[in-house]
Design brief:
The protein is α/β, with parallel strands linked by helices and 302 residues long. The protein has a domain of 202 residues: Rossmann fold, CATH 3.40.50. 39% of the residues lie in helices and 18% in strands. It is built from twelve helices and 15 strands. The strands form four sheets. Strands 1, 2, 3, 4, 5, 6, 7, 9 and 13 form a nine-stranded mixed beta sheet that branches. Strands 8-15 form a two-stranded parallel sheet. It has a two-stranded parallel sheet with strand order 10-12. Helix 1 links the parallel strand 1 and strand 2. Helix 3 runs parallel beside helix 4 and helix 8 crosses helix 12. The longest helix has 23 residues. The radius of gyration is 19 Å and the shape is globular. The two termini are 32 Å apart.
């Protein structure tokens, strides 16, 4: 099968493309820089240019793709949330998705599926209430961005393309994302709970994230939002304990909420906020997790 993938250099995109190529699929990476040389890479994938910042995607680069996986977007925890960076978070998702969806809608032979990224931030902060895909959207910054992000894919749906929105949780991986920052701290024995530790973190291992994305491509009955989180969300206190057990390090240094707010600014709300999200639709469709518990996810990532 021929895939087109955005966000191909990110944590999830890199792992997804590695998995697809290992199984003999063709992959076109949509990249923001000019493609290198003739666009062919040593791993067997090819590159094509797109410009999500200006809402531009070349339909010719997408021609022939049977599935498109759209993962591009500025990292929400990469910088302090200034007004300018919040615009970048929003625009990198909404403008890029709109450009991609419109380009796909113009194709004479469109792909059969667009897996267009989203996040559990859609639900806002909900304390310890269990949340599945039927829950209403939240009203904070990331919730509003996530709603716009999903809505921007509508031109593809209007063109008859099956559109799925994987609402991804916190990806447990040593090589990037939020957990990529936690592992070095815990390995030094400097880890500890964040804030009260009672807030729920809805996680998923990197290998389960990749497997779930491929599952969404293959399962024709799935469209709309699908939560990509492990079936057993845990509190930050439980995350801390699991990290300590797996890495065999003490976890004596809690970080007060006030300190997190001082260092992280508005993003601290996401760190100390609570989202207890479950993957109801994924489980109903028959997906099987390799790492259903936090300890298994940490062991897979270490």
């Amino acid at each position: 099968m021929r895939f087109a993938v955005t966000g191909s250099s990110g944590l999830i995109g890199t792992a997804l493309i590695r998995s697809l190529l290992a199984d003999g699929h063709q992959v076109v990476r949509l990249v923001r820089r000019p493609p290198q040389g003739d666009g062919r890479r040593a791993d067997g994938s090819t590159e094509a240019h797109w410009d999500p910042a200006h809402g531009q995607a070349d339909p010719t680069a997408l021609a022939g793709a049977e599935a498109v996986v759209h993962l591009a977007g500025a990292g929400v925890g990469d910088h302090r949330w200034t007004a300018a960076y919040k615009r970048e978070i929003r625009d990198s998702r909404v403008l890029g998705t709109a450009a991609l969806a419109e380009a796909l809608a113009e194709l004479d032979t469109p792909p059969r599926v667009l897996v267009s990224g989203s996040a559990i931030g859609f639900y806002g902060q909900a304390g310890d209430r269990v949340i599945d895909e039927t829950a209403a959207p939240g009203d904070d910054f990331l919730a509003r961005v996530s709603q716009e992000w999903e809505d921007a894919a509508q031109p593809a749906a209007d063109a008859g393309i099956r559109v799925v929105h994987p609402r991804t949780g916190l990806v447990v991986a040593a090589g990037g994302g939020a957990w990529g920052r936690l592992f070095p701290i815990f390995r030094l024995g400097l880890g500890g709970r964040l804030g009260s530790g009672r807030q729920y973190w809805s996680f998923i291992s990197l290998r389960d994230e990749v497997a779930a994305l491929r599952f969404l491509v293959d399962r024709e009955e799935l469209s709309g939002p699908v939560n990509l989180t492990a079936p057993h969300p845990v509190t930050n206190r439980e995350v801390t304990a699991a990290m300590g057990r797996v890495l065999r390090r003490p976890t004596p240094f809690p970080v007060p909420e006030a300190a997190l707010r001082l260092v992280l600014g508005e993003f601290a709300v996401e760190v100390v906020g609570s989202q207890r999200v479950v993957p109801a639709r994924l489980l109903e469709a028959g997906f099987r997790f390799s790492d259903p518990t936090i300890e298994e996810a940490v062991r897979a990532a270490r």
